Amino acid sequence: MSRLYLAFALPVVVLTTLAAGCATTQPEPAAGPTVGMEIDPARADTAVFAGGCFWCMEKPFEELEGVASVVSGFAGGDVPNPTYDQVTTKTTGHYEVVEVIYDATVVPYDTLLQVYWHNVDPLDGGGQFCDRGSPYRPAIFVSTASERAAAEQTKEFLNGRFSSPVAVEILDAAPFYAAEEYHQDFYRTNPARYTSYRIGCRRDARLDELWGDNAGVLGPAL
For the whole model, what pTM was predicted? Predict the structure, then answer.
């Protein structure tokens, strides 16, 4: 995956979005295409990942066959049903996360892990890209022993790949709270602002440095 970015003369919309962070006031929604698939409730599994700004973590999972939906929200804190404004005070303990609802008979958990790693900076435990502080820490929330084993295995492998230690936490599952509606599927409902944010935050540039052709996509096994 090859991208070229200008490091100067960024458009005003990019600078404004970057200064604002992952989200600010409620934007005007726009219609987007339908994504996902129908899943028999008996076969539906969930997985929860924290990878910085939740806007940027929805798209790579929603593009996977076997994923029904991806919901932006919060997990890991000690305030029930928090609002976005509460979480951004960095006092609730929550992470920005996405909850992936998927059919494991179509897309296995190992594939979700692969997509997760290729969309984060695993070496940065203080936030992700331009978003700093506790809500943006990277983490994998696991609900079963098999999920923990798979997550630990990939983390151990990556510790051998990079010269710096992998900073992604692997945590026990915690209550998930969906974020406000205007955050959901932001990449589809507000594509210009979403793209400006990614460029201004240099998210893709850093992913390219870390992962090369596998950045942001489902590439070869880790």
Answer: 0.86
